[in-house]
Amino acid sequence: MIHAENLTKRFKETLAVDGLNLNVSEGEVFGFLGPNGAGKTTTVRMLTSLISPTGGSATVAGFSLGRQDTEIRRTVGVLTETPGMYDNLSAEYNLRIFAELYEVKDVPGQIEKFLKMLGLWERRFDATGTFSKGMKQKLAIARALLHEPRILFLDEPTASLDPEGAHLVREFIVELKKEGRTIFLCTHNLDEADHLCDRVGVFKTRLLVVDTPARLRASVFGRKVVFHLRFADETSAEHVRKLPFVREVKVVENKLVVTLDEPERRNPEIVRTLVNVGADVQYVGELRHSLEDVYLQLVKTA
Amino acid sequence: MNKIKTIIRKEWAEVFKNRMVIFTIVFLPLLMTAIPLGVIYSTRGTTSDSGNAINGQLPSEMTQSLCPNGLSGSDCFQVYMVSEFMMLFMLVPVAIPVTIAAYSIVGEKTTRSLEPLLATPITTAELLVGKCLAAVIPAILATYAAFGIFALGTWVIVANKVLLAALLDARWLIAIFIVGPLLALLAVVFSLMISSRVNDPRVAEQISMIIILPVLGGFFGQVAGLFVLNKQIISVIAFVMLALDTLMVYLATRVFQREQILTRWK
Q1: Are residues A267 and A181 in the same domain?
Q2: pLDDT digits 0-9 by tens, B147-204
Q3: Are residues A201 and A153 in the same domain?
Q4: Residues 6+ apart with CB under 8 A from A228
Q5: Residue B60's pLDDT is what?
């Protein structure tokens, strides 16, 4: 659905996006992670044909960037970083304007559908200036969806929302995912990306890495399994180290932290080894690095 | 076309919730109508002798071009006085749209609504035309309404048909129905250009108000006796305005770049 090849954007002396190569499949939720000023918003603006690239090419929903910009804008939905509502106008009128600009056929029907879906129907005649940040954000999501876009670009959808508001928006994104929409999600919230995204890309002017959150964790830190023993010591650790598939073993209090590939297949053998040398295995669990750890590691070394 | 209508309706829905804008749209035309009507009313009782005395002091070019045969000195003085206010009347189609258009783009920048708007399939031309018409139409309607009141008031106050015809002659019709809309368009396009280049609505309004200066200059020039607004001069002004409008519309389409407007804004 989204295909970028060497996409580049330069503002005079500043290189904002450096040769982005990217493929996002239909129905995929793609997390676009990166620090402030990394060029995420610039990338979204290019892919939504708000600004033109200075190099490279891209297609969005099969439409070519630069040649079919109006078609791209008609096909995608965009949630910008700030909701940007017409505060003097009612929620219903705000949506009506955009429904008409997107040439929605059943304007009242679509407005009712999304206002009800996002719990704003009762407040439809209120000026949006009286809305909370969360309500405005939900209204902005409704605005981005009015024309039923196949691709949705969400730029920091939960930023500045309280936990309840953020939770509601995340649940809504899950619903959109179930409907099979392709979602390009820019976020700073790494738990959110971990929870929602099929794949994530870490971006800092250029794309540092793209993969599923699980594989990213494994590739950056390796997979670690913790064996909780009644008494863990160097002797039991040494026996585990001798196993050919084990990359590293550390003794931490009464635990052995073992780095290895394919723990699902190898763990039983480690357990057998430990039992054979007389260790009492209490329980086994995988040590999960957060996506934040992965992100910080990647951005630090970029 | 539908998108242009949507933009116009949106602009009006926003603008007419602002009481200051409504005040400007209503008060200014009423003021500019009341002044010449007041002059006609207050000078209607001028005696023929004093009128002839005043008439003798009027520029000969004025009496030749503005006072048809059959007008007494006092009647001709009324025509002269009202003609002085014609340039002031032309402030209506300039000042009203400036108030609306100056805020048009920069206002969307400050409320951050410009990016979602530009993300829709609307073309730059549709957006510009919509915003332009949203400011020009109220200005023209207000000008026409003010002129209607002026014409009606003049008809009520003035009994002399020759004087009535001289007060509401071709000069006024060209000024109101041709120069007025052209002035309004010029003011709007200029204000939109300014609005798209600055980051503060106050700056946009202040710079846009520069467009009023030539009109005021014309008024003071006429009062000072530098020229008399006759039919020929007003026709020339209309042609100059047409040329200026064409130039400004061309410049506006060059200046109004979606990307520039988005990325220059911080």
Answers
A1: no
A2: 899 888 888 888 777 777 777 788 888 888 999 999 999 999 998 888 888 888 888 8
A3: yes
A4: A254, A255, A281, A282, A283, A284, A285
A5: 66
Residue A298 inside a domain? The answer is no
Cα distance between residue B192 and residue B169, in whole Å: 34
Do A82 and A36 lie in one domain? The reply is yes
Distance, in Å, from the CA atom of B133 to the CA atom of B4, rounded to the nearest integer, reads 9
Chain segment A180-239, per-residue pLDDT in tens = 899 999 987 888 888 889 999 988 888 888 888 878 777 777 778 899 988 888 888 899
Tokens 């700030």 belong to A82
Number of Cβ within a 10 Å radius of residue B186: 23
Domain limit, last residue, from A186, A211, A236: A211
* Region B16-36 average pLDDT: 84
The answer on pLDDT for A134 being more than 90 is no
Question: Residue A140: its chain B contacts at CB < 8 A?
Answer: 116
**Residue A203 and residue A238 in one domain:** no
Q: Are the beta carbons of A51 and B14 separated by less than 8 Å? A: no
Q: Which domain, by its residues, includes A275?
A: 222-288
CA-based nearest distance B184→chain A, Å: 26
Domain ranges, residue B246: 2-264
Of B2, B13, B18, the CB nearest to A89: B13
Residue type, B76: C
Residue A294 lies in a domain: no
Does one domain contain both A125 and A272? no
Q: Is residue A256 part of a domain?
A: yes
Range A260-267 average pLDDT: 86
- Say if A216 falls within a structural domain: no
* A74 contacts B121 by C-beta, under 8 angstroms: yes
CB pairs under 8 A between A and B: 75
CATH code of A236's domain: 3.30.70.100
* Contact between residue B249 and residue B182 where contact means Cβ atoms under 8 Å apart: no
Both A177 and A86 in a single domain? Answer: yes
Average pLDDT, chain B: 83
- Is B112 in contact with A52 (Cβ distance < 8 A)? no
**Chain A residues within 8 A (CB-CB) of chain B?**
11, 45, 48, 50-52, 70-71, 73-74, 76, 78, 80, 82-89, 93, 97-98, 100-103, 140, 143-144
* Closest CA of chain B from A124, distance in Å: 16
**Is residue A196 within 8 Å of A292, Cβ to Cβ?**
no
In this prediction the ipTM stands at 0.81
Using the 3D structure, point to which of A211, A243, A276 is the last residue of a domain.
A211
Residue A180 and residue A112 in one domain = yes
- Which of A43, A46, A86 best probes binding to B when mutated, by most B CB atoms within 10 angstroms? A86
Model confidence at A78: pLDDT above 60: yes
Number of domains in chain B: 1
Q: To the nearest whole angstrom, how far is the Cα of B193 from the nearest Cα of chain A? A: 19
Give the CATH number for residue A50: 3.40.50.300
Q: Are residues A51 and A185 in the same domain?
A: yes
Taking contacts as CB-CB distances below 8 angstroms, the residues of chain B near A53 are: none
Q: State how far the Cα of A48 lies from the Cα of B100, in Å rounded to an integer.
A: 30
* CB-based contacts of A190, cutoff 8 Å, min separation 6: A33, A290, A291, A292, A295
